[in-house]
Write a structure and sequence with these properties.
The complex is a heterodimer of chains A (285) and B (261). Chain A is mainly alpha-helical. Chain A starts with a helix and ends in a 7-residue tail after the last helix. Chain A has helices spanning 2-42, 62-93, 96-110, 114-133, 140-164, 168-176, 181-210, 213-219, 236-243, 250-278; strands at residues 52-53, 58-59. The longest helix of chain A has 41 residues, at 2-42. The radius of gyration of chain A is 23 Å and the shape is globular. Chain B is α/β, with parallel strands linked by helices and 261 residues long. Chain B is built from 10 helices and 11 strands. In chain B, helix 4 (127-140) packs across helix 6 (160-173) and helix 6 (160-173) runs parallel beside helix 7 (190-203). Classes of the chains: A mainly alpha (285), B alpha/beta (261).
Chain lengths: 285, 261
């Protein structure tokens, strides 16, 4: 009797698990299906063409791709050093009484919905950027900064967790050879936690590249490639968020779907690399 | 009440009225303990779990200082000074008093870099000197033959016994005067254990050794002096062959005959 119950239970859970896989495949199929028209019309030039002109039915994704890459890159450049600093502080330097409150506040920051970062960015950061760097304030740079602030808590928390996995006995061994705190951090803890740290960076990268609401407010949705970071720009998710409502032709609509397919493939690749390459469980030393 | 024999040889360390209290503990874990450690000899510390032997061992290089709130009282004399004072330079102290842990602790780097680590911390950069001293340390730790062709490989690829000998090589490479062994074979198989024990005995001529062990046979096999600790006190310190054959304290006798443990 009980073996039958077990079997039913096992098969049900199996079904649910496969359902998730099916869901992923389904999303891919739908995106692809809707992209077909745009793929037929533009082929490979879709990602090399820098003109996005709905009025003449011309759709080139390069400015959006460029904006996604540059804003994410900016965000990573700003967030990585700060995240490492916070993680080192929390795992090795902070007094026990400070560790918990600061650690929890950082995890709380990670829970702030991205739309709030976007609003805050628009009303608080845009004027600062405008006054400091010129331009209208709505820009690639603002997007990069908001993104970096948004991914920072997650990066810092996961990096701290990775550092905390370093066994005490390993740290003690380095201290026992006459190491200073700094020696132990750079020679033992960071190398030991390296895989987890890089994994957390890549996950953050994945989040930054797909982030929509936080940057939609501050980026400007301007399909123009400019090296001047104070110029408004766009990214793939920003384009999607802004333009679906006004997609009035089949090709326009299909082009937006191709953009989203592109974004999904990028995000999938990034997360897969992080999961399979860096975040596998480490054997206990 | 304790029976502590006189040691007529030169002393590496001298513990005087030592007390140790862990952070947030009400009572000291080690109480008024006095004990001489003979130079260039092997002193074993035995006793049941929780008797304070590891706590005492970890006081000699003040590794307890890594965790805030721990408190030392009394004196530990090393080279004519009390090393428990706040002004003691812990970096220098730990170079002079090395430590081997319960589990092998190979660093996440190559075999060569592991052994060179302590020397590099001291600022030694000369390649020839590093190479010479790494080779010598590995030879002295009886592991040179096994690793000489793969010095650049990750040290975590070695077996447990090899890693522990690597840790010993790393510790002796900086030429300490005292080596502390904290149950160095508790994670090893019997053959690796035998290898480490032989190595400990061979090292006696150049370095004073204190070894904490759960294994009474191990204490009997390797040590010259044995201290038996119980509930934070040193009950008896004697020459190993005498302590195990004719213990003078009733508690020592009961422990070594297995009446409690």
């Amino acid at each position: 009797m009980s073996s039958i119950v077990d079997k039913i239970f096992a098969n049900t859970t199996k079904l649910i698990a496969f359902g998730v896989l099916l869901l992923v495949a389904w999303i891919f199929v739908v995106l692809f299906e809707h992209s077909v028209e745009s793929i037929k019309a533009f082929g490979f030039t879709f990602i090399t063409e820098d003109k996005w002109a709905p009025n003449v039915e011309k759709f080139g994704a390069l400015p959006a791709i460029y904006g996604s890459v540059v804003s994410t890159f900016l965000a990573m450049m700003l967030a990585v050093p700060v995240a490492i600093g916070i993680a080192i502080f929390l795992s090795e330097i902070a007094h026990a009484k400070l560790k918990a409150p600061v650690g929890i506040s950082i995890e709380l920051l990670a829970a702030i919905p991205s739309v709030i970062y976007g609003m805050w960015g628009l009303f608080y950061f845009v004027p600062i950027i405008r006054d400091t760097f010129g331009g209208i304030g709505i820009s690639m740079l603002t997007a990069g900064i908001i993104l970096s602030i948004m991914i920072l808590p997650f990066m810092a928390a996961v990096t701290r967790d990775a550092m905390n996995t370093t066994p005490d006995i390993l740290k003690e061994s380095a201290y026992a050879l006459g190491g200073t705190k700094w020696d132990v951090i750079k020679d033992i803890i960071i190398p030991y936690a390296k895989a987890g740290i890089i994994g957390s960076f890549i996950l953050a990268l994945g989040r930054a590249i797909g982030e929509t609401m936080a940057v939609t407010f501050v980026m400007g949705n301007v399909h123009k490639i400019s090296v001047d970071l104070t110029e408004p720009a766009t990214s793939i998710p920003v384009t999607l968020a802004n333009e679906f409502a006004e997609a009035d032709s089949a090709l326009y609509y299909s082009s937006l779907f191709e953009l989203s397919l592109f974004l999904l493939v990028i995000s999938f690749t990034i997360i897969s690399v992080a999961k399979f390459y860096f975040l596998r469980r480490k054997r206990i030393a | 009440m304790a029976t502590i024999i006189e040691i007529n040889e030169p002393k590496a360390l001298e513990v005087k009225n030592f007390e140790f209290t862990y952070a947030k503990a009400d009572a000291p874990s080690i109480k008024k303990l006095s004990m001489p450690i003979a130079r260039h000899n092997i002193t074993a510390l035995i006793g049941p779990s929780g008797c304070g032997k590891t706590t005492l061992l970890r006081s000699f290089n003040r590794i307890h200082d890594l965790y805030p709130g721990n408190k030392y009282d009394g004196e530990i004399i090393f080279k004519d000074r009390n090393i428990l004072t706040p002004k003691e330079d812990l970096i220098k102290l730990r170079i002079q008093i090395g430590m081997i842990f319960q589990k092998p602790t190979a660093f996440p780097m190559s075999i060569f870099d592991n052994v060179a680590y302590g020397m590099r911390l001291q600022g030694i950069k000369n390649k020839t000197e590093l190479q010479g001293r790494v080779e010598k340390a590995l030879q002295d730790a009886a592991i040179w033959k096994e690793v000489k062709d793969r010095l650049k490989h990750d040290a975590n690829g070695l077996s447990g016994g090899q890693q522990q000998r690597l840790c010993i090589a790393r510790a002796i490479a900086v030429e300490p005067e005292v080596l502390l062994f904290d149950e160095p074979t508790s994670a090893l198989d019997p053959i690796s254990t035998g290898g480490i024990e032989e190595l400990v005995v061979e090292l006696r001529d150049r370095v004073s050794i204190i070894i904490v062990t759960h294994n009474m046979q191990q204490a009997a096999r390797v040590s010259d002096y044995t201290g038996f600790m119980y509930l934070g006190e040193l009950i008896e310190l004697g020459r190993t062959e005498e302590l195990f054959v004719t213990p003078r304290e009733r508690l020592t006798e009961e422990y070594i005959t297995g009446k409690f443990g």
